Every structure is written in structure tokens, then in C-alpha cells.
Amino acid sequence: MQKTVRRAGIDEIDAVAAAFAHGSVDEAVSTWVVADHPEIAEAFRTQHAPRLIERAIRDDEVWLAGAGDEIWAVSLWQTVTSADRVVAEAAEARAMAEAAPGLRPLTRMVAVTALLAEHHPREFPHRYLQAIVTVPEHRGTGAGGAILADRLKAFSDASETAFLEASTERSSRLYARSGFVRTGVTHTLPDDGPTLIPMWFRG
After folding, report:
1. Helices (runs of H) and strands (runs of E) counted in the chain
2. Side-chain half-sphere CA neighbours of 191 within 13 A
3. Helix locations, 44-164, DSSP H
4. What pLDDT is stored for residue 203 in this prediction?
5. How large is the greatest C-alpha to C-alpha distance in the chain, in angstroms?
6. What is the rounded distance in angstroms from the CA atom of residue 73 to the CA atom of residue 96?
7. pTM value?
8. How many CB atoms sit inside 10 A of residue 189's CB?
9. C-alpha to C-alpha distance for 109 and 44, rounded to whole angstroms
10. pLDDT at 123 (0 to 100)
């Protein structure tokens, strides 16, 4: 079946959230955050993912690839005009961790959001690829690459830049093939966490 790329609509929240949660099961940062806490992983699937997707569809952009009504890959894009959002998200994570002291997934989420708040580039405006995941059974179909090609052409045509943090060396190579370039620095999360690799697309 031929793949198409399209923007998600508000009536698709449930289906997109299910695909996003399914595609995130082995994503490096998510896996690290919820390690050894299956109850937190389940809460992400049933509670956090739907809220995240609803907010992204309403306030940002969610782009999908798939065949027909099938969702093979999901991507979340923000238009960033200031550091206010990443700073607020770091503060929210700290407050949650303080309300449940000693819960390791929340402590690790604090580490992630604090790192992003400190190191997210202050070059505004830019597009930010917050996340892109492919449903496991559709990996290898080029669904994620199709989204990148579609979005990056649109950004290039509009003279816009885009930024992301790859969470593995393998994913950084995939992004590089789409035109992203590493900044030359990396950020390793504590507690044996993954290393984030900042990358820019400048058209």
C-alpha cells in the first residue's frame, strides 16, 4: 500500500495516541525513564499519551504517515519562539517529583526536562521535532523518513530551520541522511541514561 503523509486532526486523538504509545515502547529516553516501573509505563500508555497527543494536535502539529487510515508513524512538531515552554515543563516536572519523593521515573523526568531547558537553543524561531516514532510492525517501511522528507521540504521552502535531539547514534545517522547536521556537542543523562545528540536542519 502506498504511504501518505498528513496532519492529524482533532477527531483522531485516540488512534494517534494509541499508535504513539505503541511506537514509544522501546524509545531510548522513554525506556530509561520508566525502567523497572511497569505501572508508570502503563500510565504513560493510558493517561499521559492521550493528553500529550491532544495538546500537540490542538496547540502544535502532529504529522502522520501510513496507508489509508492506518497510522504507521507519528511525529510531534513545535514552533519555538522562546524558551518559556521548556523552562515551564522543567518546573512542572520538579513539582511532580517533589510531590512523590523517591519515585525514580519522576526523578529521571526531572533530569530530562532540566537538560532540555538548559541546553535547548536560543535561536528563535525554529521548528522542533519533539518526537517521532514508528509502530513496531511498520518499521523498515520508510514511514518515519516520509514524514521527515515532507516536513523538511516545507521548512526549506519557507526558509525555516528545524532542531531535534537524537537519542541514539543509529537515529542520528537516519536524521543525517535527511539533512540534519550534528552540532558537535552531546548531552548524557545521569544514572546510565542515554546520550542526546543535538542536530540542526537549515535547508
Report:
1. 8, 8
2. 13
3. 49-59, 84-99, 104-119, 143-157
4. 85
5. 49
6. 30
7. 0.97
8. 19
9. 13
10. 97
> Measured between alpha carbons, how far is 53 from 126 in angstroms, rounded to an integer?
21
pLDDT at 115: 98
Measure Cα distances from 81 to 35, 36, 78, 85, 159 in Å: 33, 37, 9, 9, 15
Q: In whole angstroms, what is the distance from residue 29 CA to residue 27 CA?
A: 6
> Residue 128 is placed in which grid cell?
522542533
- Report the Cα 175 to chain-centroid distance in Å: 13
Structural contact between residues 77 and 132, judged by C-beta atoms closer than 8 angstroms: no
pLDDT value at position 90?
Answer: 98
* Cell numbers 502544535: residue: 60
The CB density around residue 27, as the number of other CB atoms within 10 Å, is: 17
Can you list the residues of the chain whose pLDDT is less than 70? none
Closest-CA residue to 165 (of 202, 143, 195, 125):
195
- SS3 for 61? strand
Distance between CA 69 and CA 31 in Å, rounded? 28
- pLDDT, tens digit, for every residue of 39-62? 999 999 999 999 999 999 999 999
**Half-sphere exposure for 22 (CA within 13 Å, toward CB):** 16
